[in-house]
Prior knowledge:
The complex is a heterodimer. Chain A is α+β, with helices and mostly antiparallel strands. Helices cover 35% and strands 20% of the residues of chain A. Chain A has two domains: 21-193, Reverse transcriptase/Diguanylate cyclase domain (Alpha-Beta Plaits, 2-Layer Sandwich), CATH 3.30.70.270; 271-415, DNA polymerase, Y-family, little finger domain (Dna Ligase, domain 1, 2-Layer Sandwich), CATH 3.30.1490. Chain A has helices at residues 36-44, 68-72, 85-90, 100-114, 141-156, 168-180, 196-201, 213-221, 227-232, 235-253, 284-304, 341-355, 388-405, and strands at 28-33, 53-56, 63-66, 94-97, 121-125, 128-132, 160-165, 187-189, 271-281, 307-318, 326-338, 362-370, 373-374, 440-444. The longest helix of chain A is centred in the middle third of the chain and has 21 residues, at 284-304. Chain A is globular, with a radius of gyration of 25 Å. Chain B is mainly beta. In chain B, strands 1-2-6-3-4-5 form a six-stranded antiparallel beta sheet, with no helix packed on it. In chain B, strand 3 and strand 4 form a beta hairpin. Chain B starts with 36 loop residues before the first helix and ends with a strand. Chain A binds chain B through residues 46-47, 108-110, 112-113, 115-116, 154-157, 432-433, 439-446, and chain B through 1-3, 44-47, 49-58, 60, 63, 65, 68-69, 73-74, 84, 86-87, 89-95, 106-109, 120, 122.
Amino acid sequence: MSSILCDREKPACGGQPVSDVASNKTIFALVDCNNFYVSCERVFNPNLEGVPVVVLSNNDGCIISRSNEAKALGIKMAVPFFEVRDLIEQANVRVYSANFTLYGDMSRRVIHTLAQFTPEREIYSIDEVFLNLSGFERAGLSDYARQIVATVKKWTGIPISIGIAPTKTLAKLANKQAKKRPELKGVMDWSALPDPEERLAQIEVGEIWGIGPSGERRLKSWGIETAHKLRQADDQWILKRMGIVGQRILLELRGISCLPLEMVRSPRKSVLCSRSFGRAVEKLNELKEAVAEFTSQAAETLREDRLSAKHLTVFCITRPHSEQARTHSSTVELPVATDSTPELIRYALREAEKIFFADGRFKKAGVVFSGLVPTEEVQTDIFDGKNRGSAGKLMQALDEVNARLGSGALRFAAAGLLQSWRMKSSRRSPRCTTRWNELLEAKTIA
Amino acid sequence: MFNQPPVRAGADASEQTPAAVGFPSPAEPFAEKVLNLNAHLVKHPAATFFLWAKGDALLEAGIHHGDLLIVDRSLEPAPGRVVIAVVEGEFVVGYFDRLKKRTPSLLSQNGPSGKPESIEIWGVVTYVIHTL
């Protein structure tokens, strides 16, 4: 049972069934923040405790986070706000616009708090982290995990659940169980179950991580309705019908780890910045403003990662939620890869003009940079004729000013000043962990 | 305990000594990092939050209206410490008294009904920053 934290064997990968008795195998613990966005709102607004709360997506379009009370009212995930507006008003559900500045900061705090418990982790999403708890068996995995739950709650105010298992797929399932059953106090260790097979028999295949609606339909058409039946299926048979991805899921259900902990983020392939508009955009100059703004933001991300882009795509979408949604896009290859905002804006605006058409009602637009290369390795062109050194200094100064005075303090005039196309976020809470002028107040009492 | 991320030395250009062209500086072997106020005041970055103080009821604790409160949620409140508490859904700052029948209470707490209402301790105030 004693295992050393570093110097661990690489977990088995690919579709090869491997005996999983290696002594230093990974013990996956999936940490998932409960109703994360709603929980963030509650930390700074205690009045939201115990009442139904929902958070809306960008542009106040759809429901993206629900408190348990809101779930109990029958409000479903991802439904458009207008569809449940009556219910929300009747039940006095508190509604918030997404405050991603706050959620991002709280996510960072949760991840830092977890760091004191194990050095090996994979940040999977804004509210999910896989930990490796191998080496902590002596402390009792469930007890250790409960300590993690209590510490994260105390330090950050965010409630979390932890599912522990020998594979990522089972850790996901264990996490769901931990959330469903309050008596588990937020922690479930799959290996400690007396009847894991029986538990799998109660889980529908659609609930398994990585099985989408079409996969679920196919499996059910073959009579494989539960996680247990999938686990019992012949892995070569599944390989033939569902490919390596399907086979991996089956093996992971058997406790054979095929998806290792990915501790290093794979290098970026592209940078995307896109937003829905607050209202339909019909004028070319408005579309160009928006495209310039998205280009500026994406260029900032590019420079943060010290990358330059060789290809630039501009796209816009008309009627995104209807059947006839149409995407119009145009891509240009730049003569020299760059990270300079004004240069990128110049190309982006040219592409925006190409995709614009009269009587188009644009609901959403975006910019994608691809063909990314490290800025230091950019191949210059002998006929380039641009002073890239001074452009670099200008961008550095721009980023420093914006870091100090807040994002968007200094921006290009092409992005417009009024930005009337900006999306609605009329019910956003204060950004009380990142802005001095939005900090909360505490009344002194003696 | 929690390992702090390494302090980024020389993040600001003003923190670096421009290199001398003539003689090397005799101070160089003794150089230490610039004092970092953030690292000094914030021991647990993941658990530390800032709030503004409102009102002058805690002058004796050195807290004035408009002061910046540094609040560490990772600490256990001890009697006599200044804490942020949630009283009837509002953030207040006051002296922590003790646990009465396992529920926390603030010192000289006068609820509207005369008896202390249920409160929750949100964090411990570790520093107050006051403009002179």
